[in-house]
Write a structure and sequence with these properties.
alpha/beta, Rossmann fold, Dihydrodipicolinate Reductase, domain 2, 15 strands, 31% strand
């Protein structure tokens, strides 16, 4: 039996408790939260869990195998370090840390102690993103030119981190996963309308090797909810609309430039309009898949898809984008590398 303790059971925590507690040979043994109302809410539905308001007491008193950290971003590093030093596997909600140096320290610590460091990039466990990765890897879409993402809604507004760290993290993780590499540079601009220094709207551009681009637009001040990602290849294009019943649509469309003589004046654009289809997806709750993967990696000693290195790659982009925001959109370079 894998025994899990969950730190932070407010907004997202109850979903984690529900999923972990429904996995066979896994039990949520303890929960920890500073708010008695959050504790009461969970205890009412899961009376078997032990409750704590102090993380140190939970770690000391419970015979846990791993902990799940679903607390404000600024606390991730300290709590994850505490868990790993106590010999516990750690599942950290996105983003892994605020700074890349903190992520690297956690990676080194987990490796030293032979523990699983798992990052909650939930969309990398979702059927639509896995299908997009498959379409790209198979070559059906051809050479990818760019990926654009829109994540918009009216709220929920965060006061501890900006929409860059709260919302764009999802799309950064997806773009890096689909392209399989880190950007060479990023530039980011935004608007801090409600609170100085906390950007409600961000526009992020990531430039990748081989003339590829990733574009992310996020806002919690938008009147209509949108969760749309577009992949543009030179053979076909695909749209992932998370709010649509048909999550993915593949379009046999494209545009090319050709010339008979090679003279510039002879170059003409050729537009191709073909069929559209929606591939079948084996739908599973991404959070359930994510939680099950963490438990499996603990039991089998395996390295998860969303390990610390994966989390670090996203934090490096966030860190650079945040610096670009501070410098009013100035491009910031990143050491380019392969991302699993």
């Amino acid at each position: 039996m894998t025994r899990i303790g969950i730190i932070g059971v407010g907004y997202w925590g109850p979903n984690l408790v529900r999923n972990f507690d429904s996995i066979s040979d896994c039990e949520v043994s303890a929960i920890c939260d500073l708010d008695p109302k959050n504790i009461k809410n969970i205890k009412g539905r899961y009376p078997h869990v032990n409750e704590y308001s102090d993380v140190d007491q939970m770690i000391e008193n419970e015979q846990l195998d791993g902990v799940v950290i679903a607390t404000p971003t600024a606390t991730h590093f300290g709590l994850a370090k505490k868990a790993l030093n106590a010999g516990l596997h750690a599942f950290v909600e996105k983003p892994l840390t605020v700074e890349s140096s903190q992520s690297q320290e956690l990676i080194d610590l987990a490796e030293e102690k032979g523990l699983v460091l798992f990052v909650g990039h939930i969309f990398l466990h979702s059927a639509p993103v896995l299908k997009l990765r498959e379409l790209i890897a198979s070559g059906e879409l051809g050479e990818i030119s760019y990926i654009s993402c829109k994540r918009l809604n009216l709220g929920p507004v965060r006061t501890d981190v900006s929409s860059l760290y709260d919302l764009a993290t999802h799309d950064i993780s997806i773009v890096l996963h689909l392209l399989g590499q880190q950007p060479e540079s990023v530039c980011c601009s935004g608007l801090d309308h409600l609170k100085d220094g906390i950007h409600d709207v961000v526009n992020l551009t990531m430039k990748f090797p081989n003339n590829k681009m990733g574009i992310v637009h996020c806002s919690w001040l938008d009147p209509r909810k949108e969760r749309v990602l577009t992949v543009v290849g030179d053979k076909k294009m695909a749209i992932y609309d998370d709010l649509s019943q048909e999550k993915i649509k593949v379009y046999d469309k494209g545009v090319s430039m050709h010339s008979k003589s090679g003279e510039f004046a002879d170059f003409q654009l050729s537009y191709h309009h073909g069929d559209m289809y929606s591939p079948w997806l084996q739908q599973k709750e991404p959070l359930r898949s994510e939680c099950a993967e963490f438990v499996r990696c603990i039991v089998e000693g395996d390295t998860p898809r969303t390990d610390g290195v994966n989390g670090l790659a996203v934090v490096e982009v966030l860190e650079a984008a945040n610096e670009s925001l501070r410098l009013d959109g100035t491009p910031i370079s990143i050491d380019s590398r392969i991302v699993a």
